[in-house]
Amino acid sequence: MTDPWVALEADGDAGRRAGALRRAYEQFTAAGLVEPGVRSVVAESWRRSARARVAPEGRARVELDADELAVYRDGHALSRVMPLIRELTGAYAVDGEHLVAVCDAQARLLWVEGHPTARRRAGRMNFVEGARWAEAAAGTNAPGTALTVDRPVQVFAAEHFQRPVQDWTCAAAPVHDPHSGRLLGAVDITGGSGLAHPHSLAFVGAVARAAESQLALLAPRPGGGAAQLAALGRDEALLVLEGRRVRLSRRHSEIAVVLAHRPEGLSGDELLLELYEDEHVTPVTLRAELSRLRALLGPRVLRSRPYRLGVAVDADFVTVGRRLASGGLAAALGEYTGPLLPASRAPGVVRLRERLRDQLRTAVIARGDPGLLADWAYSRWGEDDLAVWRALAAALPEHRRPAAQARARALDREFAEGASSPGRD
User: Fold this and answer.
1) What is the dihedral of CA 403, 409, 415, 419, to 10 degrees?
2) Whose CB among 54, 133, 322, 390 lies 3.0–4.6 Å from 139's, allowing a Cys bridge?
3) Residue 102 — left, alpha, or beta (φ > 0 → left; ψ -120 to 50 → alpha)?
4) Cα 236 from Cα 391, distance rounded (Å)
């Protein structure tokens, strides 16, 4: 297959491909083995789904009731572009008996619209407004997997991890804040095997780009020379400054994060301690990095004596901390797209990352709200968090506890086996 993100080539035999996928899926669920014909994006998603203990016979859970959904989506950034999305997709969905769905960054479906017959059928697998279709909760599916890998994805037939979804084909593309790069959600088209065509993936990708363009028009960049720094959930931060989008290197990302946290500035010695584990790294090395960063950003942005950022910076990790401090736990979780520069080992970044993570998870556990606990437990950073899984199992109604209890027991065993392995301190 020439494009690994497309489920079926334009001249492909849908019936034959569906049969091959069915056999490969049964092989995987029975023995954990992936046959060569399965696309890598699907194989990796199946493995993540299995690790998350997604039940093959299960269905997505509805997490937002009608009242919660109405309030939440009215305030969501994507509500502003729903008229455009409807205009672009409405005829396509109705004429083709498809559905158009828009979800948030946690893969909760906020809008599901389209052909009435398709909506009734989809309702039987809980593809409805308010349901969570995150990959870790509902297995391989287009909106959930598109959000996980952060790019447009098409999923066909038995590529879906849950069997009730395997009669469907879907294509989804993520939508980002055009200024900060923050992931806002995804646009999805769901229907029959006729959607298993490269055109449907290209179409949904074009709709997502149009939505981002519309958001840029509706929400102009902040004025006054302010910059936006996105560093959560990514190893290379994105800095948006006066219309420029600058992807920083890993070391420059660390510098930007430390300076955004300390707007008053730091001396060279202080910055050296914040950035380098190795105490033998010399100030010359740091000055060389700062010189390269100043050449990239300009002397007005990166100042010295002390080292500081010369413009106001709206950093995503600062926003999360501010919302959490004001009591807005749900809003803070909505903004938290992952650990701060997760691959960084810079001491100053590690402290910030661990502090923010610990503050959030402590607040989530203390609140005891099943929806917030599920948001954390089914995230990439929470899938192995034993304390949260235990809290989720305790908070859920009795009939919904078994899956969370099973995950908590499995983690407990893994940690016990790891602690008793030879060679561990």
Assistant:
1) -170
2) 54
3) beta
4) 33
